[in-house]
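User: Hey, my collaborator sent me this sequence without any context and asked if I could get a structure. I don't really work with proteins. Can you help?
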Amino acid sequence: MKRPFDIRIVLVRSIYERNIGATSRGMSNMGMSRLILIDPQCDITFEAQQTAATGQTGLQNRMTYQNWQEFMNAEPESIKIGFTARDGKGRQVRDIDEVLHDIQDHAPQFQIQSETPYTLHFIFGPEDWGLSASDLEQVNFCACLPTWGENWSLNLAQATLLAMFSLRKAWGGDRTILNGGDARRAPQGVQGINPEHTLKLWLEEMGFDLTRQKKINAFTVFRRMLLQNTPTKKELVIFETVLQQSIRKLKEWKAFQKK
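Assistant: No problem. I've predicted the 3D structure and written it out in structure-token form, which is a compact way to encode the shape of the chain:
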């Protein structure tokens, strides 16, 4: 690619919040963070957060628009790709790989040298019938995700993940490198907050030896609990504050004992 790109995932009239959460998780796997909802038909509650698991960024930073007009007015100029499994009249549906190669080779936006990212919107319809004909009037390309089995209908979250994977295979990006060990990371995103580091300091002040080569120790147990509960940014700040205060009190007590 000659020009950097910014992918935004757009879910239109989504019915089930769990699919929105799972899409957010898939976005974190594929290095994307801009999630957009148009006229969602569900509330975003704990179920979405739970399904997003360690991929909360897209969900927490999501943008919601009431209709297409609001979306068009607020979003930047872009190439819009609508995903549909139906090859109906006038849809001119092609496999996503073919669409991406066509854009890369021929779209004028990508034939220029520029440091400014160009925006692409990947657009997905609701779980029951997908994008309507009027929805597809808003897009530049109609794309499908090929299937080989008798069931051609994909779950929404699976479809978004496959589409993002197809994009990364075609256009690349900075691939995640795992250097052994447990590659998971506790939720971050708050400047100056490092829960894992503070947790280690707290446990060491409590007298735990974390240098022993054990698969399971106090740190790994607490860390796993932190990951599984996927705290929000506000909760991370509170968690960090409590640990820091505990460390200060422990140090004060140890200093008092030495006197």
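In plain terms: Residues 181-189 have pLDDT under 50 and may be disordered. You can pass these tokens on to your collaborator as they are.
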